[in-house]
Design goal:
Elements: H1 2-15, H2 25-28, H3 36-51, H4 80-88, H5 94-108, H6 115-134, H7 138-147, H8 152-178, H9 187-209, H10 218-231, E1 240-241, E2 245-246, H11 250-262, H12 272-280, E3 288-291, H13 294-298, E4 308-311, E5 320-321, H14 327-330, E6 336-339, H15 341-350, H16 360-373, E7 384-385, E8 391-396, H17 398-405, E9 412-419, E10 423-428, E11 440-444, E12 449-459, E13 465-471, E14 476-483, E15 490-495, E16 501-505, E17 514-519, E18 524-535, E19 539-546
Helix pairs in contact: 1-3, 4-6, 5-8, 6-8, 6-9, 8-9, 9-10, 9-11, 11-12, 15-16
Length: about 550
């Protein structure tokens, strides 16, 4: 037995990259051991770990981990206090800041840092990324709005930084898993699993904020962890580490991002995803995740399945409406059902007029997402396939459309996939720009120009975009508007509809405002604004009355 232990110890030291050639000299001279008892304890611990295996009664766990190599990428800060000081001195320019963070996190993969020190380092990075994504101040939001476009490189950098940090947490967790430890009994193990899961959820949220599909393997990892932690009786636990505090429970992390996915983030206006994600934080105890009962496995009635969603644990997607889930998937034993009925009740109560007035934006958001959370959203009109080629050109954004009609902006290529009486579905190849929901878009077809607004937009990480459009009645005509008071001139689009309308940049409309409108022929008319039809961060669309004598 002693021979086996010493052979194991010699092999361990001979494979170590951190010892000198004389690192195991003491093995050849046992009498020189300073503390034989201590050495015996260390040797027993190493022997046990070499024989340990993942817990046999728990599901297999395949974590998104990082491979630590011998390649060094320069020195990094390994002291958490110094790291905080360094972060406070970094540039506030988000793209530059993210690039620096990503390089440093990737460098950690090439460093041999003790588990205790590494988890303290990762926590500093975690709170920094959480702040950058969720706690942006008004100046940062205003800058993002004025910039209008997030470059593809910036999007991928943020997504990769979140994934890199998640992988580092999961790498620490995987060591516990491989040793056969159980998350319910080992707080550090569960802490790392929950932190990694939170970062994967934030990676999904970040994609939704920019109308992107969830990155590959994100939902697969969360679905797998849901089953693993449920079996380990740790899904509802909040592990605590004395120096670091608590994490959210995994079930809260999962439920929050699942509700956001169910609410169809691709149809929400800019910044509404953040608002919705924050709103759901107070409702997570109202969401239930259970096995799929026999009666829900066979019911097909939409009304009876209101608020029921299926979690397919072996899939790389979020919960889907149970009514749209095939029977063969519903009956799989490991698949789960997510219920939102109590969430619907809470949101519905917020719409009831009371003394406590809810935020107007929140009320609008609630009305928009209720049908999705109830799993009973229906299209307003059926789509029809086109019988001929639907190749067109598009221009989006109010100012871009004005410039295009004045001959100064080029258009993007797009294909009309299908259409209905109220709108169309577009496919846009190589769409590297961010197109926002509610954005104004101009379609240049073979024989006419057509204005529309974006109902929903989604792009994958290969930049293949799809957009649902709502057509706007009337042929657009370039005009110039001048308020009665003041000398400023504003470009506009006039729509010759039954109720004459104007589209201008944001800030032109106010009730009963007097405007002089100049058309391309030099003709003028005096008008008074009437009803605001729609308004976004980019433009306003309103009707007007022509004043007598114009």
């Amino acid at each position: 037995m002693y021979f086996l232990f010493f052979a194991f110890a010699e092999r361990h030291f001979s494979q170590s990259t951190k010892l000198s050639p004389n690192g195991f000299h003491f093995l050849q001279s046992p009498v020189r051991l300073i503390n034989p008892k201590l050495f015996s304890m260390w040797l027993g611990n190493k022997w046990f770990r070499s024989q340990a295996k993942p817990a046999a009664d728990l599901p297999e766990l395949h974590l998104l981990t990082s491979i630590v190599t011998d390649e060094r990428r320069g020195e990094i800060i390994t002291d958490p206090a110094l790291l905080k000081i360094w972060l406070s001195q970094l540039t506030n320019d988000l793209p530059q800041r993210l690039s620096i963070l990503l390089v440093n996190l990737q460098a950690i993969k090439q460093q041999h840092i003790s588990e205790n020190r590494q988890i303290n380092l990762l926590e500093v990075y975690y709170h920094e990324l959480n702040r950058l994504l969720l706690n942006r101040d008004s100046k940062v939001i205003a800058k993002a709005t004025s910039a209008k476009k997030s470059t593809f490189k910036n999007l991928t950098n943020f997504s990769q930084t979140l994934r890199c940090l998640a992988e580092l947490y999961f790498t620490l967790a995987d060591k516990h898993y491989q040793r056969g430890e159980r998350p319910a009994d080992q707080p550090r193990y569960l802490f790392c699993l929950n932190r990694g899961s939170s970062l994967i959820a934030l990676q999904i949220l970040h994609a939704y904020m920019h109308y992107r599909t969830a990155p590959k393997d994100c939902w697969l990892q969360l679905n797998q962890l849901l089953m693993y932690l449920e079996k380990a009786k740790a899904v509802a636990l909040q592990p605590e580490i004395t120096t670091l505090g608590k994490t959210d429970s995994f079930e809260h992390i999962y439920k929050r991002v699942a509700l956001t996915a169910i609410a169809d983030p691709y149809s929400l206006s800019k910044f509404a995803v953040n608002r919705l994600y924050a709103m759901f934080a107070d409702m997570l105890d109202k969401v239930a995740i259970t096995v799929i009962p026999p009666q829900q496995q066979v019911i097909e009635n939409t009304f009876l399945l209101t608020g029921y969603f299926c979690i397919e644990v072996q899939s790389d997607h979020g919960p889907k409406a149970l009514v749209k889930t095939p029977h063969l998937i519903r009956v799989v034993a490991d698949n789960r059902m997510l219920q939102t009925q109590d969430v619907l009740t809470v949101l519905g109560q917020k719409l009831i007029p009371t003394r406590k007035q809810e935020n107007t934006l929140d009320l609008k958001l609630i009305r928009h997402v209720l049908p999705q959370l109830a799993a009973n959203y229906q299209r307003q009109s059926p789509r029809k396939q086109l019988s001929e080629s639907g190749n067109i050109e598009i221009v989006y954004g109010f100012q871009n459309i004005v410039d295009f009609l004045n001959g100064a902006t080029t258009a993007l290529k797009a294909v009309v996939v299908n259409h209905s009486e109220q709108g169309s579905l577009l496919h846009i190849a190589d769409c590297k720009d961010s197109i926002d929901v509610d954005e104004l878009i101009l379609l240049k077809m073979h024989s006419k120009l057509q204005l529309a607004s974006i109902c929903w937009f989604c792009s994958d990480w290969q930049n293949n975009g799809q957009a649902g459009l709502s057509l706007i009645e009337g042929d657009p005509e370039i005009v110039t508007c001048q308020p009665k008071i003041g000398n400023l001139l504003y470009p506009g689009l006039q729509l010759n509809t039954q109720s004459p309308a104007l589209i201008t940049q944001k800030g032109v409309f106010s009730p009963r405002r007097q405007l002089t409108v100049f058309n391309a022929d030099g003709k003028t008319m005096n008008v008074e604004t009437k009803d605001l039809f729609s308004a976004t961060l980019d433009y306003e669309r309103f009707t007007y009355i022509v004043k007598a004598g114009s």
